[in-house]
Description:
Structural class: alpha+beta
Bound molecules: 2-oxoglutaric acid, fe (ii) ion
Radius of gyration: 19 Å
CATH topology: Jelly Rolls
Strand content: 15-25%
Amino acid sequence: MSAASTVPVIDLAAYRAAGEAERAAIAAEVDRACRETGFLAIAGHGVPEDEIAAVRAAVRGFFDGPAEAKEAVRPAKGQPYGYLGLGAEALARSRGEETPPDLKESFNGGPLTRPEGESDPDALAFCYAPTPFPDQPGFRAAWEAYYARMETLAAQIMELFAAALDLPADYFAPYIDAPISALRALNYPAAERPPEAGQQRAGAHTDYGSLTILLPDPGSRGLEILTPGGEWRGVAPPEGAFVINIGDLMELWTGGRWRSTLHRVVVPPEAALERRGSLAFFHQPNWHAEIAPLEGGGASVTSGPYLMAKFAAATA
Ligand SMILES: O=C(O)CCC(=O)C(=O)O
Ligand SMILES: [Fe+2]
């Protein structure tokens, strides 16, 4: 593995304020990043610092809190929301790779609203299942405020993606007007003993949906992406920016032009005793959205069932 490097930083506020020529230049930069590694960073995002601080404090309080508070919000088998403890998930299994479980715990929450008239039993039982919130003052308010910010930001990034693909800005809008996105808070505890063979903080995987908005705690290390040359390379999150990566459905949409890049989180040998905290927002098109290559040709995938199958494989 080579030293950590940064990813291209795109200023969203500058893009939205820019004239046509500058917008085209920024869109071209986004296209390049999505073709090369599928990772970039978004600055000028407009998410207030105090809301970020509030959700970070809330999830930190939860992870550092009593085991009973976590037990109280553990999901039933196969359910996606609530507390998943150490041993609950191995992301590499989403790709059929048998590995020991990831060295992490997480709290997960789903959409804030359910579209009227939704009657698909899988949609109702899986992604529209209620999120069991911990009984911790301020947690739910901070969580939902951050979730709402992420949904708005993701829609803006999808507009930027449309421009980068030479599509009308609102091209993706009908596919993401009832999104089934999930917010996940991650805690990777200090590693008191070396990991088992093949064990990571998060095993090598691609994300499943349209795009992911990551916010690792400042200074936390260990996120790596597989470069086109086949080398694992560390990603250093730029300060004040979100790390964005595209998921499988965006790769499919672009007919493989953009890459849903394999990534993982390792225990950094030089910093094994440092915990890692991170927030990951997985933007996912509407349950019923049929995603097929823009250029035509190739099979389509339905967003909701695809997500559900991937989650089931990773938590089996
Ligand atoms: O820890 C992180 O920042 C990223 C984790 C990740 O890639 C995932 O949960 O999909
Ligand atoms: Fe990921």
